[in-house]
Each structure stands twice: as C-alpha cells, then as structure tokens.
C-alpha cells in the first residue's frame, strides 16, 4: 500500500464549477498536509497547507483534513480557466514530502 | 517565482553515462531536498541536505548521490544512468532542519532524458 493515494484521473469542469479533489494516506506520522499546483513543465507551487483536522480557506480554495479517516480534500470554488493545472496532494514527515500522483484539472471556458 | 534555480533546464544522456544537476537555493535557506518526478507521477523524495550533511534519504540506490556546498547550493549526481532515470528532477529549498513543509520552495526542475 502506498503512503499517499490520489486517484490520478483527469478532471474536466466548466468554468464556474466547484472542483473537488481528495487523497488518502496510511502513515500516521504525517504532520503537515499540503496541496501543490503544478503547471506544465514547471515546479510545484505550494497552494495550501494545514496541520490540523478541519477546514482552512484561502480565497476560492478550501483545504479539508480528517486525521481520523486519514483523508484530505481540496475544493476550488468558482473555477477559472487559469486554474487548469495538475494538483498534487503532499504530506510531510519531518525531512521529506510524500506526494500523491496528481490530478490534471481542465477548466473549460 | 521562487528564488530556487536549477541548471541545466534540459539534458539528454545515454544509458551508462553519468550526470550532474545543480541547484541554487533561495537566499537564507540552509536545507535542500531533491525529488524525482516521472511522467504522470508525483515527485518522489531522493534525499535532503542540511548544512552540507545528508539528512534523510528515500528509496533510491547509491548511484544517486549529492553534495551541498557552504553557500547551501547543491548537486545531484547520478551514475550509470538507466532508461528509467528519465524524469523531471526537482530541487526544493527550505529554511531549517526538517523544515516546515510550508517553507519548501521548488525550482523549475531539470528534465533528464536517458536514451
């Protein structure tokens, strides 16, 4: 079983829709939970992070963590074509980040 | 844009050759981590350097080695290249030992192709 599972299926949504992404994990040692955005041929860019169960909002983005279920989610409200990218969940165990496979999101104008 | 730079941008090598990739960390950061990202996959942790010492290593063979210099820049060396080493190699810098994840800043990566 991989430490971080993220269903890598692509996602196409119309502009203005809500995008919902999620990951599960197996390692209880993970302390920080993040979402990165990666545009084609670029390095990952930190989008959201949290270290406790619950919700965290930043503009149109909401990160949700449920430590008891080992499940994290990212919601993007009012999606825009500029949100088209690959979204990677990641978790931190002190020295390293463990990433999911990523979801390619396409927002159609 | 982060202050992390990587060189070269692209590289083509043949199987069995050796390669050196370079990373300049963001100003003030003393920790550098290297990741390998194969096509369609998430980045995989290779190793981390803190103040010129290796501090943590992922599941990569010894032919993957690294260095960190006094100015905190870093090199990733890969010997005896294999076809499966073709990937995007990412460097991330952060401000301290086991740096909080929110301080890991990624460079643009070096795309390595092994023929």
Q: Hey, roughly how much beta strand do the residues of chain B contain?
A: over 45%
Percent strand of chain A equals over 45%
Overall pLDDT confidence of chain B: 91
Helix content of chain B: under 10%
Number of helices, where a helix is a run of at least 4 consecutive DSSP H or I residues of chain A: 0
Task: Pick out the low-confidence regions of chain A.
Answer: none
Number of strands of chain B: 11
Number of helices of chain B: 0
Low-confidence stretches of chain B: none
* C-alpha termini separation of chain A: 38 Å
* Proportion of helical residues of chain A: under 10%
Morphology call of chain B: globular
Order of SSEs of chain B: EEEEEEEEEEE
- Characterize the largest beta sheet of chain B: strand count, sense, and whether it forms a barrel: 7 strands, mixed
Structural class of chain A: mainly beta
Multimeric state: heterodimer
Number of strands of chain A: 11
Biggest protein-protein interface?
A-B, 25 and 28 residues
Kindly describe this structure:
The complex is a heterodimer of chains A (109) and B (115). Chain A has strands at residues 4-5, 11-14, 19-25, 32-38, 45-50, 54-58, 61-66, 71-76, 85-93, 96-99, 103-108. Chain A is mostly beta strands and 109 residues long. Chain A is globular, with a radius of gyration of 13 Å. The termini of chain A are far apart. By secondary structure, chain B is mainly beta. Chain B is built from no helices and eleven strands. In chain B, strands 2, 4, 5, 6, 9, 10 and 11 form a seven-stranded mixed sheet that branches. Chain B has a four-stranded antiparallel sheet with strand order 1-3-8-7, with no helix packed on it. The model of chain B has no long low-confidence stretch (mean pLDDT 91). Classes of the chains: A mainly beta (109), B mainly beta (115). The A-B interface holds A 4, 6, 8, 32, 34, 36, 41-46, 49, 88, 90, 92, 94-102 and B 2, 4, 33, 35, 40-45, 48, 55-56, 58, 90, 92, 97-98, 100-102, 104-109, 111.
């Amino acid at each position: 079983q991989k430490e971080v599972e993220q269903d890598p299926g692509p996602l196409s949504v119309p502009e203005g829709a809500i995008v919902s992404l999620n990951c599960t994990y197996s390692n209880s040692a993970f302390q920080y939970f993040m979402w990165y955005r990666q545009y084609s041929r670029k390095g990952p860019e930190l989008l959201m992070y949290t270290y406790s169960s619950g919700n965290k909002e930043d503009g149109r983005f909401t990160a949700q963590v449920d430590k008891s279920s080992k499940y994290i989610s990212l919601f993007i409200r009012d999606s825009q074509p500029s949100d088209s990218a690959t979204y990677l969940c990641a978790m931190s165990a002190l020295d390293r980040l463990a990433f999911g496979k990523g979801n390619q999101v396409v927002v159609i104008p | 844009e982060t202050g992390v730079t990587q060189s070269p941008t692209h590289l083509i090598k043949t199987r069995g050759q050796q390669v050196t990739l370079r990373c300049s960390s963001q100003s003030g950061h003393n920790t550098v981590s290297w990741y390998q990202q194969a096509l369609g996959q998430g980045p995989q942790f290779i190793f981390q350097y803190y103040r010129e010492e290796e501090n943590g290593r992922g599941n990569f063979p010894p032919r993957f080695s690294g260095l960190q210099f006094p100015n905190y820049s870093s090199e990733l060396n890969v010997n005896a290249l294999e076809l499966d080493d073709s990937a995007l190699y990412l460097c991330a810098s952060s401000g301290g030992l086991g740096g909080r994840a929110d301080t890991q800043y990624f460079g643009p990566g070096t795309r390595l192709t092994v023929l």
